[in-house]
Design goal:
451 residues, alpha/beta, Gyrase A, domain 2, Four Helix Bundle (Hemerythrin (Met), subunit A), Rossmann fold, 3 domains, 7-stranded mixed beta sheet, 13 strands, 44% helix, 18% strand
């Protein structure tokens, strides 16, 4: 990290302003070479300075330059931000001059990576930065800002401190058993404290299911036989004519996708090809895709035709989805009913007519109830939301279970100490106390350039 990096931090295109960011030991000196105005090496930190970017005697643009000196910056390095008039040619020209005069083009996410490596933020906060950029709803924004602020990290830090308190007492008892004024750490005391830590981890994991829903949304598939009205239901949910609707069976041959928001939670909806036996090669591939998505979906909307009797395929799929988050939609209630509802062994059934836009609100209410969307706390978004963090916390919970099992089996206290240190290290992996170069490179490569 000895070199000085630069990148365009705003979307490249026509706009009021563009911002080019520079970070590194030579940031101020390099910008000074192409800036006509005050001597930037002598101005106070955290000031905005008026002047011009020049290429020799040629003026490139009238600019405002922000100077921020280390360590009170995002990367804990000297940072300069150049505000130029928005436009592709001007922005690229200023970037070109910076590169000519000693900067290196930053890699995606490298500014945030430097913030992490320099101890400005931890991994949870870094992931929060990315989530904040990608937030599509107010709930996902609230979730991300809690991560960026360090509130979520504090949960893990507190757990690690609780483990340290246990480990320190065990160490002292092992190394200095003759001391009379130390707390004697009995097996029962260790067991009680570990039990408390385990309950806290379980609580965080339970809440984090909400975090995953807020961040990633609910992967929803609409399945059913051809001509039951799947595409019409998709269009009604999206309130637009996204999918082609005809009376011809097999019109939808591939998946059609769209998004809606229910109470601030994104539903990623996929309309699938009608499930049936077919000789058409393309349609057959679509049917196989439809069936494969059942195991991947968070929510399954299985559509039946009110005007048709239940087929053996219907009953087979109803059995397949009965233990999954699913809703059975009996569509076309505007037609005579031939479906035998008594044979549908399912607790979530919605009667609707997509043609008449009847029942869509009831369907949304069922979805809200199924995922307890109304119960997601409005003011507490202190959840883990990344798959990486949740997996590590689940491993920590499993390791604690092993510790408790060892205690119950009268395992020596020094062996229990080793297992507790493993839990402590797993929690450290979550916030980035321990990390591999491969993990860091992979994580920050997902950021946009200039962040």
């Amino acid at each position: 990290m000895e070199d000085t990096i630069t990148a365009i931090s705003t979307a490249l295109g026509v706009g009021a302003i563009s911002i080019i960011r520079v970070s590194g030991n030579e940031a101020i000196n390099i910008v000074n070479k192409i800036f006509k105005g005050k001597d930037l090496s002598k101005v106070d930190s955290h000031t905005i300075n008026y002047g011009h970017i020049v290429d020799g005697d040629k003026i490139i643009d009238e600019v405002l330059v922000s100077i921020m000196r280390a360590p009170k910056t995002f990367t804990r390095e000297d940072i300069v931000e150049i505000n130029v008039h928005g436009g592709i040619a001007t922005t690229n020209k200023v970037l070109e001059l910076l590169l000519i005069n000693g900067c290196r083009l930053a890699e995606p996410g490298e500014f945030t990576k430097r913030a992490f490596l320099n101890g400005r933020i931890d991994l949870i906060e870094a992931e929060g930065v990315m989530d904040l950029i990608n937030a599509k709803t107010e709930k996902s924004r609230d979730l991300a800002i809690n991560q960026v602020s360090g509130s979520v990290s504090n949960l893990i830090i507190d757990l690690r401190q609780s483990l340290v308190d246990v480990l320190v007492n065990i160490e002292v008892n092992i190394d200095y058993p003759e001391y009379e004024d130390i707390e004697v750490m009995t097996i029962e005391m260790v067991k009680d404290r570990i039990s408390n830590i385990r309950e806290k981890i379980k609580e965080i994991l339970n809440k984090s299911e909400n975090g995953k829903i807020i961040k990633e949304g609910i992967k929803t598939i609409i399945i059913g036989r051809p001509n039951v009205g799947k595409s019409s239901i998709l269009n009604r949910l999206l309130d637009e004519e996204k999918a082609i609707v005809t009376d011809v069976a097999g019109t939808t041959r591939d998946i059609v996708e769209g998004q809606i928001s229910i109470d601030g939670i994104i539903l990623n909806i996929i309309d699938t090809a009608g499930i049936r036996e077919t000789q058409d090669i393309v349609e057959s591939i679509g049917v196989k895709k439809s069936l494969s998505l059942i195991d991947e979906a968070d929510l399954i909307l299985y559509v039946l035709n009110n005007n048709d009797e239940l087929s053996s395929e219907d009953l087979e799929i109803l059995d397949k989805i009965k233990n999954k988050n699913s809703i059975v939609i009996i569509n076309k209630t505007d037609l005579d009913s031939k479906v035998n509802v008594d044979k549908i062994n399912h607790q979530n059934i919605v009667m609707m007519s997509a043609l008449n836009n009847d029942g869509i609100d009831l369907l949304k209410q069922k979805i809200k109830k199924l995922f307890n969307l109304e119960l997601i706390e409005q003011n507490d978004y202190t959840y883990l939301s990344s798959a990486r963090s949740i997996v590590l916390l689940k491993k920590a919970l499993e390791s604690l279970a092993s510790v408790e099992e060892g205690i119950n089996n009268n395992m020596p206290i020094d062996m229990i100490e080793i297992d507790l240190k493993d839990v402590w290290n797993l929690l450290g992996d979550i916030i980035g106390v321990n990390y591999s170069e491969e993990l860091i490179d992979q994580l920050f490569s997902q950021f946009c350039l200039g962040k």
